[in-house]
């Protein structure tokens, strides 16, 4: 059974803090990993892709991948109230996409 | 650039009525296409995916069906809607290559009365 697991939250952080979102996956041979942001009532929006071990930075977002431990994380620096959303982790396993159920993030002004 | 269009945005239908949701992609050829359903407060459930015209794979047995009459057109249908069909329906596309992300349309919020 291929799975992608996330802590559903809710995760609350104060404005300006770092939000840390984590995701684990079951298939060791997975090659591609994605983070989506979904605002309430809206569709998921791709915000980060990562394919290699290590960190990938894009603005305030940093994705971290550790294939040996089978986890991928998303750090949001200087969190803003506009970052309040559900964050979905997705992993391509066996050329099929698997989504986690998402972590709800609230940034408190 | 590529865009994905999905309509209608909202739909209210009585139980037992038919359904047709349409999705089209522009700016790319031979995309992989996907239909998902998201129940309120829940994760994404993959319903169907297609790697080419007329090629449909079903992930979940149900009273829904999908068709791909043209390369960039994906249709979700039902002959008779059930109350349990309520939800947020999302169409997505990806490039036909390994390790490509999926990109979502704006979704259709379907309410069954």
Topology:
The complex is a heterodimer of chains A (109) and B (113).
Chain A: E1 4-6, E2 11-14, E3 19-25, E4 32-38, E5 45-50, E6 54-58, E7 61-66, E8 71-76, E9 85-93, E10 96-99, E11 103-108
Parallel strand pairs in A: 2-11
Antiparallel strand pairs in A: 1-3, 3-8, 4-5, 4-9, 6-7, 7-8, 9-10, 9-11
Chain B: E1 3-7, E2 10-13, E3 19-26, E4 32-38, E5 44-52, E6 55-58, E7 64-70, E8 73-78, E9 87-94, E10 103-104, E11 108-112
Parallel strand pairs in B: 2-11
Antiparallel strand pairs in B: 1-3, 3-8, 4-5, 4-9, 5-6, 7-8, 9-10, 9-11
Overview of the structural elements:
The complex is a heterodimer of chains A (109) and B (113). With 109 residues, chain A is mainly beta. Chain A has strands spanning 4-6, 11-14, 19-25, 32-38, 45-50, 54-58, 61-66, 71-76, 85-93, 96-99, 103-108. Chain A is globular. Chain B contains no helices and eleven strands. In chain B, a hairpin with a 2-residue loop joins strand 5 (44-52) and strand 6.
What characterizes the major β-sheet of chain A?
6 strands, mixed
Parts with pLDDT < 50 across at least 5 consecutive residues of chain A: none
Please, how many helices of chain B? 0
Oligomeric state, counting identical vs distinct chains:
heterodimer
Number of helices of chain A: 0
Rg of chain B is 13 Å
Give the proportion of residues in helices of chain B: under 10%
């Amino acid at each position: 059974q291929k799975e992608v697991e996330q802590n559903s939250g809710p995760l609350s952080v104060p404005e300006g803090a770092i939000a840390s979102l984590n995701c684990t996956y079951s298939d060791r041979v997975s090659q591609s990993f994605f983070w989506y942001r979904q605002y309430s009532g809206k569709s998921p929006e791709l915000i980060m892709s990562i394919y290699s071990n290590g960190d990938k930075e894009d603005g305030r977002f940093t994705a971290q991948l550790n294939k040996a431990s089978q986890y991928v994380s998303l750090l949001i620096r200087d969190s803003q109230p506009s970052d309040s959303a559900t964050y979905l982790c997705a992993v391509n396993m066996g050329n099929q996409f698997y989504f986690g159920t998402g972590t709800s993030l609230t940034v408190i002004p | 650039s590529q865009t994905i269009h999905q309509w209608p945005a909202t739909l209210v239908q009585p139980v037992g009525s038919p359904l047709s949701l349409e999705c089209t992609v522009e700016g790319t050829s031979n995309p992989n296409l996907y239909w998902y359903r998201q129940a309120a407060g829940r994760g994404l459930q993959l319903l169907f995916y297609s790697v080419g015209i007329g090629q449909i794979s079903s992930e979940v047995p149900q009273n829904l069906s999908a068709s791909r009459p043209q390369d960039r057109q994906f249709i979700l249908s039902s002959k008779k809607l059930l109350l349990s069909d309520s939800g947020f329906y999302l169409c997505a596309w990806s490039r036909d290559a390994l390790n490509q992300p999926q990109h979502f349309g704006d979704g259709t919020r379907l309410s069954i009365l």
